[in-house]
Design brief:
alpha+beta, two-stranded antiparallel sheet, disordered C terminus
């Protein structure tokens, strides 16, 4: 997954840091720091954090894992 935060829109409400502390954290009272490539195990928390952002400054791109095509079984 890839996360992008529009820092010009971020108002420092810190809802994301509360809901997904491993991916988002506040530095001081207004500066947001975030992991642009959080572990996929954090997907649910990151999606909740993005949805809770009052100014919708968080974009989450869920990259699908590439799967090799299944091989045909011999008949």
């Amino acid at each position: 997954m890839k996360v992008v935060v529009d820092l010009s829109r971020c108002e420092g409400y810190a809802q994301c840091a509360f809901l997904a502390p491993e991916a988002f954290r506040m530095h001081g009272e207004e500066a947001l720091m975030y992991d642009p490539n959080p572990d996929d195990a954090q997907l649910e928390q990151v999606l909740r954090a993005a949805a809770a952002c009052p100014v919708q400054a968080i974009l989450v791109d869920q990259l699908e894992a590439g799967h090799a095509p299944a091989e045909a079984s011999p008949s």
